[in-house]
């Protein structure tokens, strides 16, 4: 196990986490947390708390821009969010999603989008979804000098083609998913996210790959775990997926603060003389 200096979560690196640090954590069996972030304050808080990897996810579509799923968000909408997260952190490795439609045409489109995102945001890596067919895009981006995190299993950008939110890796799907994971590693991906994958298949992939495997609804045997921060903190009032656990009730706290502010304004308790200029 890592000592207090080298561990990913809360370790005193004095610099940004790198993909080499993630690989070393895998070698020593250290598990680590990852969260999404889309703006300055959460980025600062998560960075100061020691979260080693922050994902500016296309989940901004349904957690920032109020879309029903991740499909509509654009590169132009993602770039300001990622730029803010990078500017607000000094330790976390920042990964930015390639949104739907920005990389699926061919590997050259994937590379062009990745170059734009890295140049305009300062993110240390990009992430893309897909099966074995996406491995060539990963290879093209990596060959150009950009770090890539891959995403397999349930791929939210393909929600309509998949027929909804369906668990992946059951039955004959298992071999296809394992093959895709291995293809991503061969193509040069530095890490792999597995979403809504059976725990048994996720465990097998984690054992087979030398790169970190990050689970979200993929059971307890992955090298790392990621959640959308609004789910983690209890901001989302809607129905939660089975894999979500709220570690706080930020929605209730913010509602209470809002009501206290409103009550003080209505009843003349705010502002008072101490808040006034003369």
Automatic annotation (TrEMBL):
<dbReference type="InterPro" id="IPR003700">
    <property type="entry name" value="Pantoate_hydroxy_MeTrfase"/>
</dbReference>
<dbReference type="GO" id="GO:0008168">
    <property type="term" value="F:methyltransferase activity"/>
</dbReference>
<keyword id="KW-0566">Pantothenate biosynthesis</keyword>
<comment type="subunit">
    <text>Homodecamer; pentamer of dimers.</text>
</comment>
<feature type="binding site">
    <location>
        <position position="97"/>
    </location>
    <ligand>
        <name>Mg(2+)</name>
    </ligand>
</feature>
<dbReference type="InterPro" id="IPR040442">
    <property type="entry name" value="Pyrv_kinase-like_dom_sf"/>
</dbReference>
<feature type="binding site">
    <location>
        <position position="129"/>
    </location>
    <ligand>
        <name>Mg(2+)</name>
    </ligand>
</feature>
<feature type="binding site">
    <location>
        <position position="97"/>
    </location>
    <ligand>
        <name>3-methyl-2-oxobutanoate</name>
    </ligand>
</feature>
<keyword id="KW-0808">Transferase</keyword>
<dbReference type="GO" id="GO:0000287">
    <property type="term" value="F:magnesium ion binding"/>
</dbReference>
<comment type="function">
    <text>Catalyzes the reversible reaction in which hydroxymethyl group from 5,10-methylenetetrahydrofolate is transferred onto alpha-ketoisovalerate to form ketopantoate.</text>
</comment>
<feature type="binding site">
    <location>
        <position position="58"/>
    </location>
    <ligand>
        <name>Mg(2+)</name>
    </ligand>
</feature>
<protein>
    <recommendedName>
        <fullName>3-methyl-2-oxobutanoate hydroxymethyltransferase</fullName>
        <ecNumber>2.1.2.11</ecNumber>
    </recommendedName>
</protein>
<keyword id="KW-0460">Magnesium</keyword>
<dbReference type="InterPro" id="IPR015813">
    <property type="entry name" value="Pyrv/PenolPyrv_kinase-like_dom"/>
</dbReference>
<keyword id="KW-0489">Methyltransferase</keyword>
<feature type="binding site">
    <location>
        <position position="127"/>
    </location>
    <ligand>
        <name>3-methyl-2-oxobutanoate</name>
    </ligand>
</feature>
<dbReference type="Pfam" id="PF02548">
    <property type="entry name" value="Pantoate_transf"/>
</dbReference>
<dbReference type="GO" id="GO:0015940">
    <property type="term" value="P:pantothenate biosynthetic process"/>
</dbReference>
<comment type="similarity">
    <text>Belongs to the PanB family.</text>
</comment>
<comment type="pathway">
    <text>Cofactor biosynthesis; (R)-pantothenate biosynthesis; (R)-pantoate from 3-methyl-2-oxobutanoate: step 1/2.</text>
</comment>
<dbReference type="GO" id="GO:0005737">
    <property type="term" value="C:cytoplasm"/>
</dbReference>
<dbReference type="GO" id="GO:0003864">
    <property type="term" value="F:3-methyl-2-oxobutanoate hydroxymethyltransferase activity"/>
</dbReference>
<keyword id="KW-0479">Metal-binding</keyword>
<feature type="binding site">
    <location>
        <begin position="58"/>
        <end position="59"/>
    </location>
    <ligand>
        <name>3-methyl-2-oxobutanoate</name>
    </ligand>
</feature>
<keyword id="KW-0963">Cytoplasm</keyword>
<dbReference type="GO" id="GO:0032259">
    <property type="term" value="P:methylation"/>
</dbReference>
<feature type="active site" description="Proton acceptor">
    <location>
        <position position="195"/>
    </location>
</feature>
């Amino acid at each position: 196990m890592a000592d207090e200096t080298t561990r990913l979560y809360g370790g005193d690196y004095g610099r940004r986490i790198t993909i080499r640090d993630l690989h070393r954590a895998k070698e020593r069996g250290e598990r680590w947390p990852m969260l999404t972030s889309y703006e300055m304050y959460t980025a600062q808080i998560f960075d100061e708390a020691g979260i080693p990897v922050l994902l500016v996810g296309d989940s901004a579509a349904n957690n920032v821009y109020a879309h029903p799923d991740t499909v509509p968000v654009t590169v132009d909408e993602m770039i300001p969010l990622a730029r803010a997260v990078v500017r607000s952190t000094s330790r976390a490795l920042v990964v930015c999603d390639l949104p739907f439609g920005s990389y699926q045409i061919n590997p050259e489109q994937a590379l062009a989008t990745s170059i734009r995102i890295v140049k305009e945001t300062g993110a240390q890596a990009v992430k893309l979804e897909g099966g074995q067919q996406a491995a060539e895009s990963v290879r093209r981006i990596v060959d150009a000098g950009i770090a890539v995190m891959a995403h397999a299993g349930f791929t939210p950008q393909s929600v309509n083609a998949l027929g909804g939110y369906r668990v992946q890796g059951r039955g004959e799907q298992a071999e296809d998913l394992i093959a895709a994971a291995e293809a991503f590693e061969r193509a040069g991906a530095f890490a792999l996210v597995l979403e809504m994958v059976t725990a048994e298949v996720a465990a097998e992939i984690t054992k087979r790959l030398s790169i970190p495997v990050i689970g979200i609804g993929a059971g307890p045997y992955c090298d790392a775990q990621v959640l959308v921060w609004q789910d983690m903190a209890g901001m989302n009032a809607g129905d939660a997926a089975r894999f979500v656990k709220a570690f706080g009730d930020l929605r209730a706290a913010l509602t209470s603060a809002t009501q206290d502010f409103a009550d003080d304004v209505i009843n003349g308790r705010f502002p008072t003389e101490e808040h006034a200029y003369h």
